[in-house]
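User: Predict the structure for this protein chain, please.
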Amino acid sequence: MRLGFGVIQGYGLTETTSLISVNHPLKLGKGSVGRIIPGQQVKLAPNGEILVRGENVASGYWQAGEEKPAVEAAEGGPGWFHTGDLGELDAEGNLYFKGRKKNVIVTPAGMNVHPEDLEAALRRQPEVRDCVVLGLERDGNAEPCAVLMLHDAARDPEPIVERANESLAEYQRMRRWMIWPEQDFPRTGTQKPRINLIAEAVAAQLGEKRGAPAERAREKGGLAELIARITSRAPEALAPDAKLETDLNLSSLDRVELMSAIEDRYQIDLNETRFAAATTVGELERLLRQSAPRRSEYHYPAWAQQWPITWIRLLVYYLLAWPATWLLGSPRIRGRANLRGMRGPVLVIANHTVYFDVAFVLAALPMRLRHRLAVAMGGERLRSMRHPPEEMNLIVRWVNQLGYALAVVLFNVFPLPQHSGFRESFQFAGESVDRGYSVLVFPEGEVARDGKLARFRSGIGLLANRLSLPVVPLRIDGLFELKQRKKRNARFGQIRVTLGAPVKFPGDADPEQITRELEAWVAKLEDRAESERDKR
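Assistant: Here is the predicted structure, written as structure tokens:
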């Protein structure tokens, strides 16, 4: 059971004879049931169940005139007591109670939905007097259903549930609900709702309403709903052989947005190459069934934007990186006047010629933007640096991991994957902006192979649309030529960095159009640089 003492919470069970964790009165872990008490042995099973071991755990139960063991050699190994509760542990050792294992709702995509999280979101709505979230079986799959008691039973529950859904992940959202018809839920002697009786009543009541077209439309989910949301058409059944491009008119940007929405709702990673190869609705559905639940392979280092790392970054930059950039590169900066009065945050986009382009971007930006800049870097490359292959030479592995740490600490990089995981990357970019950071992206997605500007990836328009920031186009010239000649230093003016005027797009702008306009802006900066070079 979960114990509460005023605002101080702890966690323990009868079988453990004492508390397992408790919050410090002056150092409360927000939302947690405290840190593990010294001397207790606690770990999480692969399925998230809280396991406890120690002398404080009861040896058994007395049932039917005989003693039965409480501790079994199960998935946690010998000596571990299975609490039946699910939890999480953070890096500081705080334990978070996620609910009873038997109450977890497993979605069609294999994701675990904890009713307690959904109930908490509902209880934050002022109209809700009490609520219960159940997992109802439908067509062989489970889905969450909200059972509500409102202060005013005549109110429409739909906007209340939708407001609660806004604080939840796509895969957690409630698409079925009902108003409890009585004054109170049936309860146990300890005033807990009797879930089994509520579930029986809900199944009977919703079963009577199942034939109503409006109810079916509200309950409709899945691929049809996502496609309808992106194309602004009413949701309807989609034929498996419906072609995405000709029948549904999905543009390349629509595909990127659909892929992000699918990843968000079902918490899975989709391979961009396989997703792009899908031509029909049926192929998309097969791809969705084959995809595993999300286990993020990318690390988003928010700690790199906190003190003292921010101070260390500035100190090292001005002691080492800044002098090296000017002594070896001697860049010529043009267009800085375009940013006069621009306080930030902004979205900076630049062409990508070499791996250390970011040093010249930093040199070109004014100090107020340079000091608070988050840099998007290829997610796959960052992942391989952070987790090098086991078969790699030990020293080489250490060098890769050191390189990863230095990139994060000194340049505040975060992963922007090329093939999957866009949702998390876009979310981290938005969180960085909320913390006052500008964002730098290389929208070509890879280092130039011939020195020419490559076509921008469609996702940059979607990112610019979601961040709703002024976009600063930036062009670096001369670096590729030096790379080709294998030169290590440049004369003044050989490397040229041109800053364009910030561009602000309206909120309803088409992301595909944004992508093409940004590509044209950077191309104009290139044309200007070439014309000036021809004059000289």
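The first strand starts at residue 2 and ends at 5.
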